[in-house]
Design brief:
- It is built from two helices and nine strands.
- By secondary structure, it is α+β, with helices and mostly antiparallel strands.
- Strands 1, 3, 5, 6, 8 and 9 form a six-stranded mixed sheet that branches. The chain has a three-stranded antiparallel sheet with strand order 2-4-7, with no helix packed on it.
- Strand 8 and strand 9 form a beta hairpin.
- The protein is elongated, with a radius of gyration of 25 Å.
- The termini are far apart.
Length: 138
């Protein structure tokens, strides 16, 4: 009886070990390996004047931190005439990113409601300074 049990356990161990990684990869939830962090904005490029109600595009760039880092979202806080923009990126540590080209810029769309001067503050991470852009709206 003990011999049969030993043979059965050994057989099951061999079968389990023979599963291929590709089969196991489908079982792993890669979202658990995703980290989101605030990026340090390195530059912005956009117009300095606009018309009220006109949507403008501002290209926001951040430093290269590896091919796995991708744009996640913008977080916006508005107080009076100042809009603070924070850019967040995500990285999936379970993903193989070798050889992938990922852009490190994203377009931020801004639509001023009325005429005046707007300050758009692109906040960096803890160790970097913010970039403030002034937009004159007619």
């Amino acid at each position: 009886m003990n011999k049969r049990l030993s043979v059965l356990i050994l057989s099951l161990s061999i079968i389990a070990a023979s599963c291929q990684k590709s089969e196991l990869k489908d079982v792993v939830n890669t979202d658990n390996f995703k980290t989101v962090q605030q990026a340090s904005i390195s530059s912005i490029d956009g117009p300095t004047t606009a018309a009220a109600g006109e949507e403008i595009n501002i290209t926001v760039s951040w430093p290269y931190n590896g091919n796995c880092e991708k744009f996640n979202n913008f977080k916006i806080d508005t107080l009076s005439d100042t809009t603070q923009v924070r850019l967040f990126t995500s990285t999936n540590t379970a993903e193989d990113c070798t050889g992938k080209e990922v852009k490190h810029s994203q377009v931020f769309k801004f639509k001023p409601a009325k005429a005046g001067t707007y300050y758009i503050k692109f906040a960096g991470s803890k160790n970097s300074r913010a970039i403030v852009d002034t937009l004159t709206v007619k």
